[in-house]
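just leaving the lab so this will be short. what follows is a protein written twice so to speak, once as letters and once as structure tokens for the fold. can you read through it and tell me how you think this chain folds. thanks a lot i owe you, the record is right below.

___
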Amino acid sequence: MTSQISKNTNNLLYDHDFCLWIDSTVKQIQEQDFQNIDWNNLLEEIESMGKGEKNALESNLTILLMHLLKWQYHSDKRSNSWAFTITEHNRSIKKAFKQSPSLKLYFQEVFAECYGDARKLASRETGLPIDTFPKESPFNAEDVLNCDSFFD
């Protein structure tokens, strides 16, 4: 016998107990109780998941580019911490591509914007004038994805 949770109850759950709302929605899908699924909130959550993945990619790319800029243009301050950050954010990007290969296209789409953000952040963090860092990225996508070559 299927548990029938009304749409009104689902809306209340969504607003007051998100985890219970998820459990309820999963159960409704498993039981094919499609008429009682809280479709509006479910669609919003699925869309949000995609945005979250893209935001995480942008964040990882920006931080990676910022550290690559510092590595290349502020070399007298290089540290193991910078190398670790470069390696970690590179790994996170590659892992995201493995889980969602379609993010590779998004990576290309936001590369220039992320570079602009990274340039500002590198300037702010190092105290170097922003003009220290090129307006156009000195790195291409392949460089960024194969950043171990920076440590040779």
In short: The chain has a mean pLDDT of 92. The chain has two domains: 7-37, 52-151. Residues 39-73 form the longest helix (35 residues). The radius of gyration is 22 Å.
